[in-house]
Amino acid sequence: MLLEDKELIRFEDYVIDRSGWTLTWRSEPIALSRKSFDLLLFLLDHRDRVVSKDNLLQALWPDQFVEESNLTQHVFLLRKALSRHESKKKIIETIPGRGYRFTATVAVERPETPPRILFNASESITQITIEEEEIDSDDHLSITQQALGSADTHGLSLKILTIAAVPLLGIVGWLGWQRWQNHMGGAPVQVVLVPTEGTTGDPVLDRALVASLRMNLSQSPFVSLVPASMVNSTLAEMKQKPNDPMSAAVAREVCERTNSQAVLRGQVARNGQHYLLTEEATSCVDGSILAATKEEASRPEDLPRSLDRLAESLRQKLGESRRSIARFSVPLAPATTASLEALKAYAESLRMAEQGKLPDAINLLKEAVAADPNFAVAYNDLWAYYATSSGDPMAARAAITKAYSLRDSAGPLERLTITSHYNMVIVGDLFESERNYQSWAQLYPRSIVAWNGLTLTQGELGQNTDAAISAARALSLRPTYAGLYGNLVLAQLHIGDLQAARATCESALARGIDGEHLRSDYLMVAYLLHDSGLLKAQRDWAVAHPKTSYVTLTDASIAIEEGRFANARQLFSHAADVMRQQGLESLVDSSTRSIGISLIEAGDVTDGSSRLRATPPDPESGSDLVGLAEIGDLGAASAGLHAMEAAHPQSTLWKMYWGPMIQAEMAMKNKRPEDAVAILEPTHLLDARGLDLPSHRGNAYLAAGHPGMAEKEYRYVLAHQQLDPTSYYFPLAWLGLGRSLAAEGDRAGALDAYRHFLELWSHADADAEFLIQARRELATLQQVSSKK
Q1: Beta-strand relationship, 107-109 and 8-11
Q2: Mean per-residue pLDDT for 476-501?
Q3: 341-414 matches 672-787 in fold
C-alpha cells in the first residue's frame, strides 16, 4: 500500500502532494504540522488495516516515550483539517480498543512533467557545483556547445560557473535570510503579566498601559499570556488579594502554579510629558532575567506606538521569529485605536468585568467606542458582555456586527475572535464557525476562548467525541474555571462516558469549584447512573442553597420525563420565584415557554399551551415555533419560520434542524405525515445533537404507516438517552416502539415495550394522557394474545 513520493493522492476533493509536502482541498492549501502530516501519510500507507496506537506512537516518535494524549491531539487536529468535504464522512475512523483506520477511497496519479529548466545545486565547504539540464529534450545541446560549438569549453565553463555562481550565491543568501527570519529561540513560552508599577500619577492610565500591552502581546502565537481572571483566581487560592501589589515572590508562585515559564513586570516613569516604559521577563525557576527592553514616549499620544515597539522587542528577545512577529502584529495605533481615552475606558471595562460588574463594563465600553468609533476589539467585548448578562440581545447582535465590519483594523488574534463569533452568532454557519475556531486553536494553541468556542460549536453539530476532546483541552489550560467543567461534563455525557462525567464533577468539587450549574450537571449524571444516593446529595444541596434555581429546573425536567406533571409545576414555580427575586424576568419568561413546550410534547397539552402563550414567543427561538406548530397555531409558526429563514439564510440550524422540524410538525397537523417524512429524512446529519429529530421522525413514520422505519428511529432514541438525559423523548420512545411493533405484528415485542414505558411512568399522574393511552393499548394487546 506504500505510495511513491512523486504521486498525487486524491480523496473527497483533497489532494496530497507527497513530494511537495502539501495538502489541499479544491486547490485551497490546508495547514498541517509536520507531525500531523506524518500521521496522515502513515494511516494512508496502511489504509488496508487498522493501525494500533502503539504502532503509531512508535512510527511518529521512534525511541521516545510519549504520552498517548499527544497522539490523540494530532488525530483530533487531522480530523479537523479533513472536515471540509460535503459527505461529512469521518476519514480517520476510531476502532474502539484497537486503533485508527483511514476510510476514504483513494485515487493515485503521477503528475505530468512538462519541459522545464531545473537548477540542481549541492554545496560543500570547498565548492559549489551547478548542473543545468533541460528535461524531456532528446536533441538538447550543452550551453557551451550552443555558445561556441567546439571552442574552448574549459574556459567557457569557468565563465559559466562564475556567472551562475552569482545568482546561486544569491539563492543561498536568500535561504540563509529566510532561516534567520524564521528562527525561533526555543519553545513557546507562557508568561504572567504583573500590573505595571507606575509613577504617572494616573492609575487609570497605568491600567490602560497594562491592557494595551496585553492586547499587543496577545497577538503572538509564541508568547502566551495567562488570562487575568486566571491570575486572580490563583491569587485567591494563595490567600492573596487580586488588587494588592504583587511582590516578586508572589508573582513567581503564580507563575509556577499556572505552569508558566516567565513573569513579565513593567514600570512606567513620567517626567512632565515624557514617559519611560520598561519591561523585564524573569524566569519562574530561578528569577534570572530572560528578556528586558525599554521605550520612550515624548507625549501621552505617543504611548500606543511606544507600546508597539516595546512588545515587538519583548517577543523577539523571548525567542519569537521575525517572520512570526511581522505576520502576527498589528500596531495599537492607529489600527486598534489611536485614542488614549478609548484605551483608558477599555482598560477600566476589563477591570469591571473581572469583578463581575458587567453593567459597569458595558457603560465603559460605550465610552470607549464613543471616543473611537472604529475600536473593533471594544465592540467585540461589548457583544460578549451583553450576551453574558442577557441584558439586551439586540444590542449584542449589533455590537458583534459592528465589530465584524471593523475586523480588518484589528490584530490577527482579534480578527480570528471576531470572525469566529460573528459566524456563530450572526451568520449561524456552524461548519464555517468550526473551521474558524480550529484555525484559531491551531495558531494560538493556548487560547482558552478558541478551544471553548470549538467545544460549543462541535456540540451544536452533534460532534460529541470531538467536543469532549476540545473541552478537555480548554479545561487543561484553565482548571479553575467552573464553566469549563460544565462543558466537559456535558460532552462526556453525550458520548455516554458517565463515569468520566462523574469524575469531572468530583474533580471540580475537590478544587473548591461549586455552584448551581455544576450541581445541575451532576444531577443529570446521577440520574443516568441511577444512583439514588448521588441524586439525593444534589437535591439536598439545592435545599441548602435556596437562592439557586438551576438544579430545581433540572429536577422539573426529570419530573416531566417521568409523567409527574403536578410535581414539575411545583418545582418550576419555586424556581421561577427565585429567578424573579433576582430580577431575571426574561429568564422566567423563556423558561415558562420552555416548560410549556415540554408539557405539550409529553401529553399535557392544555397546561402546556397556556404556558407557551403566557408571553410573546422569542422570534429567534426554534423551539418556540415548534411549540406553536404543535398546538395548531400554524400561521404564527409559518410566519416566524419565514422571518428566520430570511434573517439567517446561511444558518446551519435553521436550514438543517429547526426549519425541517417546524415544517414537519405543520405537515403533521395538516394530516400529511408523508410530507413530514420527506421533510425530516435529510436531517440525519444532526441526529447526535439530541433526541428530538429521531423522535419526530419516528412519529412521522408511524403516522404515515411505516412502522418498520418508525421502529428504527425509536430504537435509536432508546440507545442514546445520554444525548438528552432528562428528556421525555426517552420514555415516549418505548411507547412509540410498542405501537410500531404492534403494527408490525410483533405482539411479544410490543408487550415488552409497553411494559417498559409503564415502568418508567409508574409514578406518573393518574390522568396523564399517554399513560391512559398506553394502558388501554396494552390491555387490547393482552386480550388478543389471550384469545390466541
Answers
A1: antiparallel
A2: 91
A3: yes
Listed by start position, the domains of the chain span 8-109, 189-329, 341-414, 672-787
* C-alpha cell read off for 466: 470531538
What are φ and ψ of residue 654, in 5° steps? -70, -30
CATH code for residues 8-109? 1.10.10.10
pLDDT of residue 3: 52
Cα four-point dihedral sign 736, 740, 742, 743: positive
pLDDT digits (tens, 9 = 90+) for 506-561: 999 998 889 999 999 999 999 999 999 999 999 999 999 999 999 999 999 999 99
**Are the C-beta atoms of 471 and 488 separated by less than 8 Å?**
yes
**Mean of the per-residue pLDDT values for the chain?**
82
Peptide bond into 334 cis (omega under 30): yes
Checking if the pLDDT of 724 tops 90, the result is yes
Superfamily of domain 341-414: Tetratricopeptide repeat domain (1.25.40.10)
Residue 21 pLDDT grade (very low, low, confident, very high; cuts 50, 70, 90) = confident
**Can you give the pLDDT at residue 390?**
57
DSSP string of 23-89? Answer: EEETTEE----HHHHHHHHHHHHTTTSPEEHHHHHHHHSTT----HHHHHHHHHHHHHHT--STT--
Encode burial over 748-770: b for 16+ CB neighbours within 10 A, e otherwise.
Answer: ebbbebbebbbebbeebbeebeb
> What is the CATH number assigned to the segment(s) 189-329?
3.40.50.10070
Residue-wise pLDDT for 742-785, tens only, equals 999 999 999 999 999 999 999 999 999 999 999 999 999 988 76
Q: Is 276 helix (H, G, I), strand (E, B) or coil?
A: strand
What dotted CATH number matches 672-787? 1.25.40.10
Report d(CA 311, CA 305) in Å as an integer: 10
Pairing state of beta strands 14-17 and 22-25?
Answer: antiparallel
Which pLDDT score, from 0 to 100, does residue 62 have? 76
